[in-house]
Structures are given as C-alpha cells and as structure tokens.
Amino acid sequence: MKYLVKIIFFSLLLGILASCQPVQSNDDGTGSIVLDLPPGPGNTRNGEGDFITLRDGKILFIYTRFKGGAMSDHAPAQLMSRVSEDGGKTWTKQDRME
Length: 98
Fold this sequence. Notes:
- With 98 residues, the protein is an alpha+beta fold.
- The chain has one helix at residues 2-19, and strands at residues 45-53, 59-66, 77-84, 96-97.
- A 4-stranded antiparallel beta sheet has the order 1-2-3-4, with no helix packed on it.
- β1 (45-53) and β2 form a beta hairpin.
- It starts with a helix and ends with a strand.
C-alpha cells in the first residue's frame, strides 16, 4: 500500500512539473531582473519566494518579508504577494499580505 501511495504521489509531482513553464531569458541565455524588492524601514530583509502561473494567465509571486530589526530566520515575518498581468514584464506596485 505504501508503495502504491508513493507511485501516485510521484506521478502527480511529475505531472505538475511537466506543466511548469520555463523561465524567460535574454538572447544570451541570461535572465533579467524585472522586480526588485529592497528592504526598507521596519523590513530588514526579504526572503525566498515562488512564482505560479494562475489559470487566468496572471503570474503570482509570493515571498517572505521579515519585519522588525532582527536579521534572524526566526524573526517575525509575513507572506506578501505581487501580481503580473503581462507575463512578468511589469508587477503591481503594492505588496499584498497573504
């Protein structure tokens, strides 16, 4: 039974990975920065994030925004998001808390 569950899980995972779209790159094979989220007052750093293409074609970016003055991975943090409606060329100007 455990073996069957593992096969189903990995089959679903492979199906999801196969449907992912590749990152767009420049002609020379390098990527380009289209969204820069520098830290600011009360926001010591921004952490890891992830992109997902939604059913309506928009791209959703969710990342971790650390609050307060601590640089620790255990500092208070929020999940924030931005959205692109043009394939990642431009992004919403305001963060949205998720």
